[in-house]
Write a structure and sequence with these properties.
Elements: H1 3-14, H2 27-46, H3 60-66, E1 70-76, E2 80-81, E3 85-89, E4 94-105, E5 112-118, E6 139-145, E7 148-152, E8 154-155, E9 158-159, E10 161-171, E11 186-188, E12 195-197, H4 209-223, H5 229-238
Parallel strand pairs: 5-6
Antiparallel strand pairs: 1-10, 2-3, 3-7, 4-5, 4-10, 6-7, 8-9, 11-12
Helix pairs in contact: 1-4, 2-4, 4-5
């Protein structure tokens, strides 16, 4: 569906049949709820909380649901350096980490493309002979922090060189909108200086659009405390969106 069709579908699902009970919802309000629903949908697929799974590729359905926003092997170059670590800044559209390959070398040896292992900050990997970064065992340790990814490059006292990385991640989906149908043909988001005009469709695969509208209708139903909230919740459970 394009954004206009998503607006139509949203109104159909929010209103009772042959009713315009909630016709006063404005275009920016509907856009806001559709984008909130899109964000929730991606979060539940890409990185659900409280689930004992590894990654979103638990089934082909999950893979297909967000394949259009998976950025594969994006090349990034380290920008800061100290004696033993290097930092790589994350892309502006970065959202969730999936995988990373690092190009590493050490004195007297050539480049290797090796596995990047994401560590927790309280792990003792820098002092453990079994867990430290190793050129020979083709593993480099990294942690996330506010600036990006920090790579530990000390291998048994030898400082390794990180040339670049190839990052695979889930990006933030673009903000869809139907601004041209609002009053003077556009509107501004809170805190933004740029006026949205025209339209921008959802970039997730088409088969997810109705489920996103279902979530948006559920959000709206909860906000207005409509009586059919449980009916809309049951529909999402049939689609296995909320377990």
């Amino acid at each position: 569906m394009n954004i206009k069709e998503m607006h139509y579908d949203f109104k159909m699902k929010l209103n009772k049949i042959d009713s315009n009970q909630y016709r006063n919802l404005l275009v920016p309000e509907i856009d806001w709820m559709l984008n909130e629903a899109q964000e929730l949908f991606v979060k539940m697929i890409a990185e659900p909380r409280g689930k004992s799974i590894t990654g979103f590729e638990t089934s082909q359905r999950s893979t297909e649901d967000i394949r259009s926003i998976v950025m594969q092997d994006v090349e990034l170059v380290p920008v800061t350096d100290n004696n033993y670590d290097k930092t790589v800044y994350l892309p502006a559209d970065y959202w969730y980490y999936l995988a990373c390959k690092s190009v590493i070398s050490k004195p007297g040896c050539g480049n290797k493309i090796i596995e990047t292992k994401i560590r927790q900050h309280d792990d003792d990997f820098q002092n453990s002979p079994f867990d430290e970064t190793s050129y020979d065992w083709e593993t480099v340790n990294a942690v996330f922090y506010s600036a990006g990814m920090k790579f530990s490059l000390l291998d048994k006292g030898t400082r390794l060189t990180l040339t670049n990385i190839y990052l695979t991640y889930v990006k933030k989906p673009r903000r869809m909108h139907n601004a041209e149908d609002f009053r003077s043909g556009g509107y501004r988001l809170p805190g933004e200086m740029t006026t949205l005009t025209g339209t921008l469709d959802c970039e997730l695969p088409a088969h997810t659009h109705r489920e996103i509208v279902d979530i948006a209708a559920l959000i709206a139903t909860g906000n207005i405390q409509a009586a059919d909230y449980q009916v809309k919740m049951a529909k999402l459970q049939l689609n296995d969106i909320k377990g």
